[in-house]
Specification:
The chain is 49% helix and 21% strand. It has 17 helices and 21 strands. The chain has helices spanning 3-30, 32-74, 78-91, 120-137, 178-183, 210-218, 228-233, 265-298, 303-329, 348-354, 372-388, 432-479, 486-510, 522-532, 534-539, 559-576, 630-640; strands spanning 95-101, 108-112, 142-144, 158-164, 171-177, 193-198, 223-226, 241-248, 256-263, 333-337, 343-346, 392-399, 406-419, 422-430, 518-521, 543-548, 554-557, 582-590, 593-600, 644-650, 654-662. Strands 2-1-5-4-3 form a five-stranded antiparallel beta sheet, sandwiched between helices. A five-stranded antiparallel beta sheet has the order 11-10-14-13-12, with helices on both faces. A hairpin with a 5-residue loop joins strand 10 (333-337) and strand 11 (343-346). The radius of gyration is 53 Å and the shape is elongated.
Length: 664
């Protein structure tokens, strides 16, 4: 039953297309004459443009004669006049001989061009004299002669142009080779067109196609169509051709004729192509319509199934979009990788921190700012997950993948069945802020312990030490400075003072003085510390440099606490360097913070000790050379000003301490 409608539809479509094709062919045949007329009109416009170009050339001759007249009038001698005429004749290749005669004078200045044919002056003398007299009698007009030689002579194309601008000015005449003038016509010449120029007697110019000139002599209307036989005889393809002719004004006689014969082969070819395309297009349309009708009839029963699939697809798209939004908003990095460790997807959290498009990159080239050994650690983790087909994890690793060291949990999760080009997921959890909070809590606990210790020491040891120091001073005053035991007594006093200072440092740390915040010149502070520690640096043969960025030269902080921070950090850096080492005091801008860096080229700090450097009483110096409170005090002062302190040390290569103040 379904086949009968299909047969009826097919028959109707075939009949309709057949009618359309027949109508189209009739329309093409009817419009052929109109196409030929438009084509002939376009060829006529081309040669009219060329004729206007010749007219402009003739007008230029008149302007050149006016220029020569002006130059001759201003010439003081005959030699100078001849020189001016020679210059004009040399510039224009078509100028052969130039005559000039001053107003009211019988003397004639005559100049022959260097490349003029022999005897041209003698042939043109009579015509020149006649045109000079005619121009003298009728000033203001351009007078042109006809040919002064028969058609078999080369001088048949020579014409004399004469003009007197106005009364009282010299009259000037020139012999012009019109063959050169006509050769500059801008006409496109190709295998599909022929051009001829005929003078008033029907003689073709040298640039004419001889065959076309022969046909024209037989007699051709101004614009007509010649059959393919005549077109083939004049050298065109064996197709009908359009002939267009326009008048060409060159001399004072009847107008010349400029002709162009253009083949219509391209039009006929175009018509055949159009017919073929119409037939081919109609066939294709018929086939497509039949196929579409069959497809619609055959697949009607599948419409319900397709609607159900569409619902499932919409539901899946919704779930996919929801999953992508969840991944983009979780505070962890997710990287989707193919079987060969090529990145096929990345969530927003990680993309913002990488800062560039990494889709299509390999895993080892994704983290360009990371350390090579850290990148190898991540790659090996993912490969292990792919090999074992089990999730792999690393917890609390201190690594640098994004240009800055961070504490990360890393999970490589292989998919049981790959989803498209995703075989494994790499999940990065940044625990840096959590670790920083833990360290602050630990630091606070240490502060409580230190406060209790400092209070106990100050109470239990301070008073006895003061009593002991007073008794030793009293004994020293009785013994005198020259006594043998006086040096021992002074040593006791120094050690008591050292213990007292230690107690005072503990008390200052637990109860720091309130900060007096003001704007300071960071560059001046750094240079001041360099001058202060210059002697100590020179004693250890350490070079102390200052590098201040222009956009990080001012800061709002307590100047005394700032100097204490810089001095303590710089002293530790100098002490860490061997002879010939370098210490750099640097300030720079980083995002919304001003960063102070103290960088040295010393021995560095072992990785297992780096977490303890800001603990009270921790020191890497020898016994008696340090109390372990310097960096502790620095950390307390930094945190009291809502700043951050970081340590970056590579054993054997040096240490960099960074203090970052937020810019308010």
């Amino acid at each position: 039953m379904a086949g009968r409608p299909l047969i009826l539809v097919s028959a109707t479509l075939v009949a309709a297309l057949s009618v359309l094709v027949l109508i189209g062919l009739r329309v093409l045949e009817r419009d052929r004459a109109e196409l030929l007329a438009r084509y002939g009109q376009s060829r006529e416009q081309v040669i009219e443009e060329a004729a206007r170009g010749v007219a402009a050339e003739v007008a230029d001759i008149g302007e050149d004669l006016d220029l020569a007249s002006t130059l001759l009038q201003s010439a003081e001698t005959t030699q100078l006049a001849e020189r001016e005429l020679h210059a004009i004749a040399t510039i224009k290749r078509e100028y052969l001989v130039m005559y000039a005669r001053a107003n009211g004078s019988d003397a004639t200045t005559k100049v022959t061009a260097f490349d003029a044919p022999p005897g041209v002056a003698a042939k043109a003398d009579a015509t020149l004299e006649r045109l000079l007299k005619l121009a003298e009698d009728q000033p203001g007009e351009l007078h042109v002669s006809t040919a002064f030689a028969d058609s078999h002579d080369s001088a048949a194309w020579y014409r004399v142009y004469a003009r007197k601008v106005k009364a009282g000015r010299p009259v000037v005449a020139v012999v012009v080779d019109t063959a050169v003038l006509l050769s500059r016509m801008k006409l496109q010449r190709d295998a599909m067109a022929r051009v001829a120029v005929l003078d008033a007697t029907g003689t073709p110019a040298a640039l004419s196609d001889p065959a076309l000139a022969t046909v024209v002599r037989i007699g051709t209307p101004t614009r007509t169509v010649i059959d393919h036989e005549i077109a083939h005889r004049i050298g065109l393809p064996k197709s009908d051709a359009v002939v267009a002719a326009v008048p060409l004004v060159v001399d004072g006689g009847p107008a010349w004729t400029l002709l162009m014969a253009a083949s219509t082969q391209s039009l006929q070819t175009q018509q055949r192509i159009i017919v073929r395309r119409v037939l081919l297009g109609s066939s294709l349309v018929l086939v497509l319509l039949l196929s579409a009708a069959a497809y619609v009839l055959h697949n009607t029963f599948r419409a319900r199934a397709l609607r159900e699939r569409l619902k499932h697809a919409d539901r899946l798209a919704h779930l996919t979009e929801k999953a992508e939004k969840i991944l983009d908003h979780i505070p962890s990095g997710v990287l989707a990788l193919s079987e060969n460790l090529t990145v096929t997807g990345v969530n927003r959290w990680l993309a913002e921190r990488i800062g560039r498009d990494v889709i299509g990159r390999t895993l080892d080239s994704t983290f360009e700012a990371g350390r090579s050994n850290d990148i190898e650690l991540v790659v090996s983790l993912v490969k292990r997950a792919l090999d074992t087909r089990e999730p792999q994890a690393l917890h609390g690793e201190r690594i640098s993948l994004l240009g800055q060291e961070a504490s990360l949990n890393m999970h490589a999760v292989p998919l049981a069945r790959g989803i498209g080009d995703v075989s494994v997921l790499l999940v990065l959890e940044d625990l840096t802020e959590l670790r920083r909070i833990e360290q602050r809590l630990l630091h606070s606990e240490k502060l409580v312990t230190a406060g209790q210790l400092a209070a106990g020491i100050a109470h239990e040891i301070g008073t006895p030490l003061n009593v002991a120091r007073g008794r030793v001073e009293l004994t020293l005053s009785h013994l005198g400075s020259q006594h043998a035991e006086s040096e021992n007594h002074r040593l006791v006093i120094d050690q008591i003072d050292r213990v007292t200072r230690l107690i005072q440092q503990l008390l200052d740390y637990v109860r720091p003085a309130p900060a007096a915040i003001q704007e300071i010149d960071l560059a001046q502070s750094l240079h001041g510390v360099r001058d202060l520690l210059a002697a100590r640096a020179a004693k250890r043969s350490v070079l102390l440099d200052v590098d201040v960025s222009p956009d990080a030269s001012t800061l709002r902080t307590d100047p005394d606490q700032m100097q204490q921070i810089i001095v303590n950090l710089a002293l530790n850096a100098i002490d860490a360097c061997d002879k010939g080492g370098n210490v750099t005091l640097r300030s720079k801008r980083r995002d919304d913070s001003v960063v102070l860096e103290i960088e040295d080229t010393g021995h560095g700090i072992p990785r297992d000790l780096q977490k303890q450097v800001f603990d009270p009483f921790f020191t890497t110096k020898k016994r008696g050379q340090g109390t372990g409170l310097g960096l502790w005090v620095v950390a307390q002062l930094v945190r009291a000003q809502s700043a951050e302190i970081e340590l970056d040390s590579v054993p054997g290569r040096g240490t960099t301490v960074r203090v970052a103040w937020p810019v308010l």
